[in-house]
Amino acid sequence: MTSAPEAMAAPAGPLPPGAQAPDFTLHSTPDQTVSLHDFKGQPVILAFYPADWSPVCGDQMVLYNEILPEFRAHNAELLGISVDGAWCHLAFAHERKLQFPLLSDFEPKGQIAKTYGVYRKGDGTTERALFVLDADGRVHWSYVSPVGVNPGADGILTALESLPRQGAA
């Protein structure tokens, strides 16, 4: 049985549009961290995925790597997040030639995924979930794909295109 504080801490499902994205600091390498607040003022794509080395996750991350220039055309930063450790992420990123950070939500396991409502407690992994955050750190769009299905990038690109232009009067 869960204690009351845990039940209150984790949303019932993925954070909805309009919700303030919880800040976090996670390891991108064994000795370096990345914080969400480092990207204040620009859109951020959070791509939660179950595990390095699975076929669907590999295909998904490689696709995002290939279209990284399209994300960056919107001034958006892409962050991949799973419960795998930083060493595992380093090997996976090197093998797949990924040019964006993979963040380790390893210990306490899935803590950040829980705050975003996308932790799969029975599996000990995350959902295959996408969040596009606006420049103020609010959820603009979110989507949870079936774990065995690559969600592609169309939803992300549509969400980025629908963000208000910065500096527009």
The percent range for strand residues is: 15-25%
Strand line-up across the major sheet: 5-4-3-8-9
The proportion of residues forming helix, as a percent range, comes to 25-40%
> What average pLDDT do the residues reach?
92
**CATH homologous superfamily title:** Glutaredoxin
Biggest sheet details: 5 strands, mixed
| Overall geometric form | globular
| Low-pLDDT segments, ≥5 res | 1-8
CATH class: Alpha Beta
Report the C-alpha radius of gyration, rounded: 15 Å
Order of helices and strands: HEEEHHEHEHEEEEH
Count of helical stretches = 6
Specify the CATH architecture: 3-Layer(aba) Sandwich
Class by alpha and beta content? alpha/beta
Please indicate the count of domains: 1
